[in-house]
Specification:
It is a single chain. This protein has helices at residues 37-41, 45-48, 57-68, 76-86, 148-154, 186-199, 226-235, 240-253, 259-262, 266-270, and strands at residues 88-89, 92-97, 104-106, 117-121, 143-147, 158-159, 164-165, 173-174, 178-180, 210-211, 222-223. By secondary structure, it is of the alpha+beta class. It has one domain. The protein has a four-stranded mixed beta sheet with strand order 6-9-8-7, with no helix packed on it. A three-stranded antiparallel beta sheet has the order 1-2-3. Strands 4-5 form a two-stranded antiparallel sheet. Residues 1-27 form the signal peptide. This is Endonuclease.
Amino acid sequence: MRISRTAPWAAGLAAAALFLIPATATAGPQRTAATPRAAAAATTVDDYYAPAAGKTGAALKSALHDIIKNQSTVTYDGVWNALKVTDQDPANPNNVILVYSGRSQSKNSNGGGVNDWNREHVWAKSHGDFGTVTGPGTDLHHLRPEDVTVNSTRGNKDFDMGGSPVAEAPGSYTDADSFEPRDAVKGDVARMLLYMAVRYEGGDGFPDLEMNDRVNNGTAPLFGRISLLKQWNQMDPPDAFEKRRNQVIFDTYQHNRNPFIDHPEWVNSIW
């Protein structure tokens, strides 16, 4: 039975920071043959999103999809090393920060052991059954390091409020059909899921990922609950760690961006 709680979020929505982007992004280890639009042309975030300027609703979602689908890819094996860079602890370059646990842990303790960290698909790969093939299965914008046991506890549950405390993930809760992450990453989780719903629209041989307002979505290419995720986006705006991560993915690996980190206000414009 779900136990309702009231989270002590800080109110308000912080404005997204403007990053300067090099005209030619640093080549990542898994570049595709085609040069992504961002690396070829954009010099600022505004330039990158220029085709979306002035749009709202479905038109904005379509424009953002056309922008961010231009990306390089990383293999699933390559994700291990990429996460050691994207999720590096700002206070200790030898460690990564685990997304739900919030724990700083050695980069080299990745694997399948009980106290290791592994690759958490925030959009659970069973929601659409896309596995770990290149595409949504290896997209760094929703892959994060997490404790093996906590990853297993989260499983493929949708996101909601309440439940019992999760061991090794202080501030996180779970019940039979949902998982609630700690307050400090509630907005991060929301923006990762919403990125996936815009990036993967049924092209490229991948499923059309969409949001709904339910839990228990099973293997359908759906994730919920959108009404709650919208609240989390507002109450936990992008912080320095999330912004840096977005920039590193753009500069070094995929050469595309999560638009909801740069413009969190676009969430309410689309959903």
